[in-house]
Design a protein that fits this description.
This protein is of the alpha+beta class. Helix content is 49%, strand content 23%. Strand 12 (395-401) and strand 13 (405-413) form a beta hairpin. Helix 3 runs antiparallel to helix 4.
C-alpha cells in the first residue's frame, strides 16, 4: 500500500512539474509574441509613415510638374524606346507618343533641320559620352500646318555593367511664348540698328537736300541785282521759287511725320467730290512732266462724293504723283480709281517709269530709305503716305516690275 501511495505522490509531483514547465513555456511564448507584435507594429507604423511621405511627395511632385507645365518621359537605352510618363503641358496639340515608341520615330515629329542635332545628343547620352542633355527644337504636328517649340532636359538614371546608359529620364516643356519673345526682341534690335543707320543716312541726306536749294536760293539771289535782261531775271526768279518750294516740301515732310506721331493732328472729316480733287492735283503736275510723258485720268464714275480728311488725302495723292513724275522719263502716268468694294475705295497711280526691284517693294515705305541715292528727296514721302493712310483707317501699297513701271494704290474707307 505504501508503495502504491508513493507512486501516486511521485505522479502528482511529476504532473505539477509538467504543468509548470508547460506554463513557463507558454508564458515565455506569450512574452516573445508580445514583443514580436510590438516590433512588427513599429515596423508597420514606420512603413505607413514612409508610405504617407511617398504619397505626399508624389502629390507635391505632381503639383510641381503642373505648375511648371512639364512632360516627363524615360528612355530604355537598351531597347531604344521612349515612353511618356506624365504630360502637364496643358496643350491639346502637344505630341505624346505611345509607350515603348522607338526613338527613331521622333524624326517624324521633329523639324528636319533639328533632327540631326537632337538625334546626336540622344545617342551621346545613351553611350554615356555626356551626362546630361539640353536641347531646344521645333515639333510639327503631322497632317497639319501647326508647330511649336520644345525644350528638353535629360540625364542618365541607371547604367549597365559596361557603364553605358540603361535608363534615361527627362522632361520637356513648350517654349512657344519665350521663342516668340526672343524673336520679337531680335526684330526690335534689328529695327533699332536699322533705324540708327537710317537716321545717320537721314541726317546726311537732309544736310544735302536742305543745303542744295539753300545754296541755289542764296546764289541766284546774290546775282539777281546784277541781271539786266527781263528774260534772264524772270528765269532766275523762277529758279529761286522752285528751290523755295523744294525746301518747303522737305520741311513739311518732317513736320507732317512729327505731327502725326505726336497725335496732335486729328482727323478733320470733310465731304467733297473726288473726281474734281484728283483732276486738280493731276493738272498741278502737268508743267513738271518730262518731255514726251503724258498724264491722264481714269475714273470709274462720272462723279462720286467721299467723306474723309481732305488735307491728308491731298498729301497722300501729292506724294504718289510726285514720285510717279520724278521716276517717269517716258511713257504715261494715269491717275484713277476703281468701283468701291466692301465699303472701301482704291485710288491708284500707274506709271511707265523705271520700276522697283522686288526686294525693295516693302522697304520703300520705310523712313529715309531711298532706292536711288542720286534722285532728289529725303526718303520720307512714302513713309508719310503710309502713316497718313493708317491714320485714316486705310492703307498704301505698290505693285511694280523693274524696268516696266509701277502702280501705287491708296485704299480708304468709303
Amino acid at each position: 500500500m505504501f508503495e502504491i501511495f508513493l507512486v501516486a505522490q511521485v505522479g502528482v509531483v511529476s504532473a505539477e512539474v509538467l504543468i509548470w514547465v508547460i506554463g513557463s513555456i507558454l508564458l515565455l511564448s506569450f512574452v516573445a509574441l508580445f514583443f514580436y507584435q510590438r516590433l512588427v507594429g513599429k515596423e508597420l507604423t514606420l512603413e505607413l509613415t514612409q508610405l504617407e511621405k511617398v504619397q505626399k511627395h508624389n502629390i507635391e511632385y505632381e503639383f510641381v510638374l503642373k505648375a511648371m507645365k512639364l512632360c516627363t518621359w524615360h528612355i530604355d537605352a537598351e531597347a531604344r524606346t521612349i515612353t511618356y510618363d506624365n504630360d502637364f503641358r496643358g496643350k491639346d496639340d502637344s505630341v505624346v507618343l505611345p509607350p515603348d515608341t522607338p526613338i527613331d520615330a521622333l524624326s517624324n515629329y521633329v523639324f528636319p533641320s533639328d533632327v540631326a542635332h537632337l538625334s546626336k545628343a540622344i545617342e551621346e547620352l545613351c553611350q554615356c559620352h555626356v551626362e546630361e542633355l539640353h536641347e531646344v527644337y521645333r515639333v510639327h504636328l503631322p497632317h497639319t500646318n501647326k508647330s511649336y517649340w520644345s525644350e528638353s532636359y535629360a540625364a542618365v538614371a541607371s547604367r549597365n555593367d559596361e557603364g553605358k546608359a540603361k535608363r534615361i529620364v527627362g522632361t520637356s516643356m513648350r517654349v512657344d511664348d519665350r521663342k516668340a519673345m526672343e524673336g520679337a526682341l531680335v526684330e526690335a534690335r534689328n529695327k533699332a540698328e536699322e533705324s540708327d543707320r537710317l537716321k545717320s543716312a537721314f541726317i546726311a541726306n537732309m544736310s544735302h537736300e536742305i543745303r542744295t536749294p539753300l545754296n541755289a536760293i542764296i546764289g541766284f539771289t546774290s546775282v539777281l541785282p546784277d541781271v539786266q535782261g527781263d528774260d534772264e531775271r524772270r528765269e532766275l526768279i523762277n529758279l529761286i521759287q522752285e528751290n523755295n518750294q523744294k525746301l518747303l516740301t522737305i520741311i513739311n515732310d518732317v513736320m507732317n511725320i512729327s505731327k502725326i506721331e505726336s497725335g496732335k493732328e486729328q482727323l478733320v472729316m470733310t465731304t467733297f467730290e473726288l473726281n474734281a480733287l484728283l483732276q486738280s492735283l493731276a493738272d498741278m503736275f502737268l508743267p513738271k512732266l518730262a518731255s514726251g510723258v503724258e498724264l491722264s485720268t481714269q475714273f470709274a464714275r462720272n462723279s462720286i462724293d467721299v467723306t474723309t480728311d481732305l488735307n491728308r488725302m491731298t498729301e497722300v495723292i501729292n506724294h504718289l504723283l510726285s514720285n510717279a513724275v520724278k521716276f517717269t522719263m517716258q511713257g504715261t502716268i494715269t491717275v484713277g480709281y476703281d468701283e468701291p468694294a466692301g465699303k472701301r475705295l482704291r485710288i491708284w497711280i500707274r506709271d511707265t517709269g523705271k520700276g522697283i526691284a522686288p526686294e525693295h517693294l516693302e522697304r520703300i515705305f520705310e523712313r529715309f530709305f531711298k532706292v536711288d541715292e542720286y534722285i532728289p528727296g529725303a526718303g520720307l514721302g512714302l513713309s508719310i503716305c503710309r502713316t497718313m493712310a493708317y491714320s485714316m483707317g486705310g492703307d498704301v501699297g505698290v505693285e511694280s516690275t523693274l524696268g516696266e513701271g509701277s502702280l501705287f494704290w491708296f485704299e480708304f474707307p468709303f
